[in-house]
Specification:
Helices cover about 45% and strands about 10% of the residues. With about 290 residues, the chain is α/β, with parallel strands linked by helices.
């Protein structure tokens, strides 16, 4: 996805949040540096995820930490573990468990810190979970995905944030009912609240999938350079890629990969507009191919 003017203040807010989350002593330096970088990097035809990656890498160096969201990630997982039994009952009672497992997973995607459009406190999800479920899917391509799954052999599931990764277990269980080879992808290095192997070590994810693979490097979304290597070959060999969250859309929409089913909450106008969706909806949208040929 190409960067828009609205992405600039969003990134600054995120940097401010990260600095204050750590200790606040380097807030001025971090924000000033991010502002200077964005002045140089922002322009037409630049990928929003690539710019965000560069800004956050520099910010982490200034803050002197590899994982400023560590405590929030742990709290997010705890909150969603508390919600999991109710979500599991919701799916089991459903006449369309695949769709409603996707819905539960997407509801977890509202957790997004420092951008002003997500839930900055994981505890808020506990209060709003049933209301978010009652919204249903504002865009639902589950029938198209089901048709692909009936013929598919290899499925790649690109995870996103901690917290929602707990609820992803419901979607993974439903996907395995189609007798597919299922790969879960998490991050190799901590970035934002994205789940790493360490973050999911006690969630039993390895029992739900055929393998867990780490997306190479430090990147918001996916590192586009990694797509020329073995990781990219794995994605290209998949019959379907399921990508959670806005950052994965921001990066993958710049590729020729597909088909890709995006599962997310449209938390900002630039992403919603780029996907042809309304803002603030739960969405499952299938793209046959990315936009760059």
């Amino acid at each position: 996805m190409q960067m828009t003017p609205e992405c600039v203040p969003c990134l600054i807010r995120r940097v401010l949040f990260e600095a204050e989350e750590v200790d606040g002593s380097t807030t001025v330096e971090a924000v000033r540096n991010a502002t200077e970088m964005l002045g140089e990097l922002f322009g037409e035809r630049v990928c929003s995820a690539t710019v965000a990656t560069q800004v956050h890498r520099a910010t982490y160096d200034i803050l002197g930490t590899r994982d400023p969201y560590q405590a929030l990630k742990r709290k997010s997982n705890e909150v969603c573990l508390g919600l999991y039994p109710a979500a599991e009952r919701f799916v089991k009672a459903s006449k369309n468990p695949l769709r409603d497992a996707f819905l539960c997973s997407i509801v977890g995607n509202v957790l997004d810190f420092g951008i002003g459009t997500g839930y900055d406190d994981p505890s808020k999800l506990k209060k709003e979970f049933r209301n978010l479920l009652s919204e249903g899917l504002g865009h639902d391509d589950t029938p198209k995905i089901r048709s692909i799954l009936k013929k598919a052999e290899r499925i790649i599931y690109l995870g996103d944030n901690c917290g929602e990764i707990v609820l992803d277990r419901l979607a993974l269980k439903e996907l395995k009912k189609f007798d597919v080879d299922l790969t879960l992808v998490v991050k190799e290095e901590p970035i934002l609240t994205d789940a790493t192997k360490k973050d999911i070590s006690e969630l039993g994810m390895e029992k739900l999938v055929d393998r867990i693979v780490e997306a190479p490097g430090f990147a918001v979304g996916l590192n586009l350079d990694s797509l020329s290597g073995p990781f990219g070959k794995m994605l290209r060999n998949a019959d379907l890629i399921i990508a959670k969250g806005m950052a994965n859309f921001e990066s993958l929409s710049e590729t020729d990969l597909g088909p890709i089913a995006y599962m997310l909450r449209t938390k900002c106008s630039p992403v919603a507009n780029a996907m042809g969706l309304k803002k603030d909806i739960n969405a499952v949208k299938l793209f046959q191919r990315g936009r760059r040929k």
